[in-house]
Structure formats: C-alpha cells, structure tokens
Amino acid sequence: EGAKCQLWSLLGRHHLSWGNLHAAKDAFETARSLGPAQDAGLFLNEGLLAMAQGDYAHARGFFDSAATAASDEEEALAAENNLAVCKFYTKDLPGACRRLEALVKQDALRFLKPC
C-alpha cells in the first residue's frame, strides 16, 4: 500500500506541475485513501494543491502538519519552505523568517545546502 500511495502522490504532483488541478486532486484523494492518516507527504500534497488554488491560508495548515509529521530531512525542509512562502503571501513575513531562521540555527550545515 505504501508504494501505491507514493505513486499516486507523484502522479498528482505531476498533474499539479502541468496545471491540471482536477486530476491532481483526484490522484491526491486516491493517495490519501491508501496512506496513513498522519503522513507528511500527504499533507504536502494537500498544501501544494491549496497553494495552486491560491488558498495560502489553508495551505499553511497543511504545511504545518507536514512539518510536524515529517520523518526525514527532505520532507521537513519542503514543508518548512512552503510554509514560509504561505506565511509571506498571508502577510506574516516575521513568522516566515522565524521558522526559516530556526531551521538554520538548529543545523546550518543540514539546512543550508547549495543548489
């Protein structure tokens, strides 16, 4: 079930990247039905869909949940970066800066990787 959940999540993100929000939503719903309730990747999916729909306030909640549920560094960083973007769009620049600064202070080598 875990592999199927990941595949549906990837398919949904592919649809999202091409602007097909309806297909992305359908794929994400299928992934949610196959995955655990508190999965960071599934929260990321919902947050990305909400961002694509311009609902940054709603997306903040999903990214906050993803950051809390993240089991690895990549998920945590994706959640925190997207959360910061949402905070910026919802006019909470100090909140965005605080979250990102906290990551850097926690472990600068881990969270400040060159592109």
The fraction of residues in strands falls at: under 5%
Distance between the termini: 33 Å
* Helical residues, percent: over 70%
| Main sheet record | none
Overall shape: it is: globular
What is the assembly state of the chains in this entry? single chain
Contiguous helical run count = 7
Total strands: 0
The stretches of 5 or more residues where confidence is low (pLDDT under 50) are none
Q: N-to-C SSE series?
A: HHHHHHH
Using only C-alpha atoms, the radius of gyration works out to 14 Å
Can you give the mean pLDDT?
92
Secondary structure layout plus pairing:
Elements: H1 2-17, H2 21-34, H3 40-52, H4 56-69, H5 73-89, H6 93-106, H7 108-111
Give a written overview of the molecule.
The protein has 115 residues and is mostly helical. The protein has 7 helices and no strands. The protein has helices at residues 2-17, 21-34, 40-52, 56-69, 73-89, 93-106, 108-111. The radius of gyration is 14 Å and the shape is globular.
Care to give the gist of this entry?
With 115 residues, this protein is mainly α. Helix content is 80%, strand content 0%.
Name the features.
115 residues; single chain; mainly alpha; 7 helices; globular
